[in-house]
């Protein structure tokens, strides 16, 4: 593969009640809601994007929250853990903070000199906070509930669970341009560029685990960064030439996307860095109102009537923090 990704763009998961989802990711984790829109393929549900102040690629966690969605099953063929990057000396603060909200957390573990704290969100999605010893230069979203010195910097990594690793490893290296980094037992780490937070994926080999079921509390897909549309076109052509079943380029309003499955079963996306989330509302007002792409605007009234009301805390607004 002649083209290489620079790292993670976003992770998209399926949630339950949208208000509970927003409260957790805005207030408990201290992220910012940078876009309130709908699932373009199913406009009867929200698509909520959480990230840093402007929603830069590599900081984004997004959700399709269906209130009545059945619970999924964690297993092979899916991304089973989404990890966020936090400052090196903040894991203790986060453990106290999360437990004060009633969450159960695992014990703090250390792997590859990174302290890690695991927990689940209200729908059972597996999450982790990871403190990288070399730090993370990305600026956080600063709120009174999660001060900047402890705040999440962005995505750290994702873990893909597979029954065997060979074909998945080949896709990660030859298909999207990652490099094999290291092995720790049945865990294989791959990195984009120089590695570090936001550019890592772990492949966990669990041959005896059940096949995962994507529903509430599970990851729907993992997106990797593409710098621009021209590169994306070339990338798609290379993947097709390799025999990969790739979608056409889809307009997601804030980026352009192609989708395909790696051999282990996880749905992957290649998403452009441009144009970003400020194309239809100012930075100060990101996430406050429902934004629809032009082709859905004619049905705005029906869409708004079908969506549950969503109340955002004041911390989501720059001038009201």
Automatic annotation (TrEMBL):
Residues 7-132, 154-273 form the VOC domain. Pfam families: Glyoxalase. InterPro entries: Extradiol_RC_dioxygenase, Glyas_Bleomycin-R_OHBP_Dase, Glyas_Fos-R_dOase_dom, VOC_core. It comes from the Bacteria. This is Diguanylate cyclase.
